[in-house]
Amino acid sequence: MTLPSPVDLAIPAFVGLVLLEMLLVKRRGRGAYDWRDTGASLSLGLGSTIAGVLTGGAVAAIATWAWTHRLFDIPWSLWAFVLAFILDDLAYYVFHRSAHRVRWFWASHVIHHSSQHYNLSTALRQTWTGFLSLSFLFRLPLFLIGFPPAMIFFVAGLNLVYQFWIHTEQVGRLPRWIEAVMNTPSHHRVHHATNARYLDRNYAGVFIVWDRLFGTFEPEQDAEPCRYGIIHNLPGFNPLWAAVHEWVGIARDLARARSLPEAWGYCVRPPGWKPGGGTETADAIRAAWRRESESA
Amino acid sequence: MLLLLLSVAGVAGLTLLAFLLGFRAEPRLDEARARLEAARLPGFRARRVALARDGRSALVEGHGDALALVLPVGDRFIARAVAHDALEADAEGLLARLDEPLLRTARTSIVPPDWLERAA
Question: What ipTM does this complex have?
């Protein structure tokens, strides 16, 4: 069965909503844009699309290979689509959590967090090197269960389209039942923040229930505005550097590693890890913040 | 190819629109903002601040001789830890050697404060 690409169909809406948000920022004075940042985000989005075209064939081939070894024959039915959507969102949660906790995966994902702004153009700032970091592995179990690759690619596209609109400061908090179940602008602002309280929290794609279930949920606090970006924010707006800077960092660390375990640590330990632990991992930063908060 | 050209034109168009809408602020630092920016460096707690003459950068002293340089990037700022011996003073202000691929040096209009000489 051939299904349309939800992301391709949504592109006109993406452009229209970015325009609308720019006008709202201008009128309300809430949120922010910077033309250089917007240019970088959109260029990174375009580069990501090109990278996707170049590697899409290989990903589809791997998915099809996995599906030929499936455990069940899942039919093309409505319940299968609903189940695929939910399980794909769970797979996204696992991928996304790993993308923040394992430097190899982070090297690809950091691109999405590399803006100090949080607006709809930030949503389009997507990875160029997802294939290199093997991010497609996280969906392999779905094919092995028996979900047809086209079905999974379709629901994954819907997932990505959903995540677009939550990258905004124009929407405050939504009704409680929505905030309880769904990923919302408020929850995702926390995810993009570098405040110690918010670091490495709210990994959800569509359903925030995964974070609530697995203990990674953190609500947005009015008293603590989000400060967006990464621990060492980029010194400019060069899209190429945004796409590869963490890979360059890994290569530099590997070149000075003194042993194999150290080299392994630089690749698979959390971002900011150094031999002996280091003070720049999310856990270390949060622990230092907790100590300071308790002693204050 | 046509799709690619249209996409590039779209990116350029939206970026231009952002520029024309006035999203090109270059904010100035005050002491509180400089402290806040420096505090984004893990473990850094600001003590004293020297603002640049143009207000676009600052040198912040932390505990235990730690120094942070706050620099402008568009309408935002970045902070970098900097060693005492990576700073050089000349008639224009402080020049910092940062040795990053895209930020080898940073030229600022910070007048070297007295506490910097004492700390060095």
Answer: 0.93
